[in-house]
Amino acid sequence: MKKITPYFFAFLVIFSLSVGKSYTQTKDAINGNISISGAFALYPLTVKWAEEFRKLHPNVKFDISAGGAGKGMTDALAKMVDIGLVSREINPEEVKKGAFGIAVTKDAVVPTISAANPVLKDILTIGLKRDAAFNIFITGKIKTWGQAVGTKSAIPIRIYTRSDACGAGETWAKYLGKKQEDLLGVGVFGDPGLAQAVSKDPSGIAYNNIGYAYDAKTKQPNPGVKVIPLDINNNGKIDPEENFYDTMNAIINAIAAGNYPSPPARDLYFVTSGKPVKKELVEFIRWSLTEGQKYVLESGYINIPKEKLASGLEKIK
What is the model's pTM? Predict the structure, then answer.
């Protein structure tokens, strides 16, 4: 079995990235430090945005870490960071505590299995009904791959889920009408860790953000990982209009067109503690909602509607 790429391994633990002084220092009215932590889902695009923003404003330094949406929200509310990356809806209790959220892009959570799954062909042909997913991840009534695809296979299904509070887990559970704590499975930290676990287990099933199910450069599924198509119309097979999982671009287009359900498609947020006031912070958020949007598609994300971008810009005025 092929191994996960080194880039894929890099996210297995929380780590910080400080964008170095790789650009010529020039006189600029915007300077200072911006600290960011949170969702693995939004981390790669945020790093790209920081790199591009520094080309325009080299006197702004970034400290960015990935540790899950729960950490991003907690850090933002505690004012430990300037921006929390959150890959789920912001709840009313968090708003009462001062969470100030701005949608910046969109992606989705997808069910994943090992490319070495012994009934892979059947799974890709039949797909996964919502009820079947519910009885795998929530009730545990479906215990074998034979039960999942309607064959006599007695190979047990091994379920993997996120051990950290995260937007991916919350969003996948919401698709099933539940909460993250209702999901069954062996807990694994982080999106990359979950993809690694399922890739190594031919009997495994999990869920991942599309940025970790696919390679952002090749646009192909990451080595060892396959995305399970959702049988959206529940007719027991994957019809041509439901078959958009071969490449990252195909599923991105499906999400943008509304052909993939929401949830598990969802908006991704920058969250601050109260309305941002630091000049460099406001400018970075403004830039992300305007010029920065040109990097969204190439980074494997989906542009949110112009009206929503305009609403975000109005909020930070």
Answer: 0.88
Strand, helix or coil at 284?
A: helix
**Which of 210, 233, 256 is at the close of a domain?**
256
β-bridge mates for residue 62, sequence order: 34
The answer to whether 127 touches 231, Cβ cutoff 8 Å, is yes
Mean pLDDT of the chain: 91
Tens of pLDDT, residues 67-101: 999 999 999 999 999 999 999 999 999 999 999 99
In a domain, 262, yes or no: no
Q: Same domain, yes or no, for 215 and 150?
A: yes
In a shared domain, residues 177 and 278: no
**HSE toward the beta carbon, residue 105, CA cutoff 13 A:** 27
Q: Would residue 152 count as lying in a domain?
A: yes
Q: Are residues 240 and 274 in the same domain?
A: no
Query: Residue 108 to residues 60, 111, 283, 300: CA-CA distances in angstroms?
Result: 31, 10, 27, 11
SS3 of residue 147 by DSSP: helix
The DSSP code sequence of 189-245 is: SSHHHHHHHHHH-TTEEEEEEHHHHB-TTT-SBPTTEEEPPB-TT-SSS--GGG---
Q: Is 66 helix (H, G, I), strand (E, B) or coil?
A: strand
Specify the residue for token string 């933002």.
76
Cβ contacts of 84 within 8 Å, gap of 6 or more: 36, 37, 38, 69, 71, 72, 73, 74, 75, 76, 77, 270, 271, 272
The verdict on residue 66 lying in a domain is yes
Half-sphere exposure of residue 123: CA atoms within 13 angstroms, side-chain side: 28
* 20 pLDDT higher than 70: no
User: Could you tell me the CATH number of the domain that includes residue 28?
Assistant: 3.40.190.10
Same domain, 93 and 131: no
Q: Which of 211, 184, 222 is nearest to 108 (CA)?
A: 211
Mean pLDDT of 149-163: 93
Domain boundaries, position 166: 108-256
Asked whether residue 135 is assigned to any structural domain, the reply reads yes
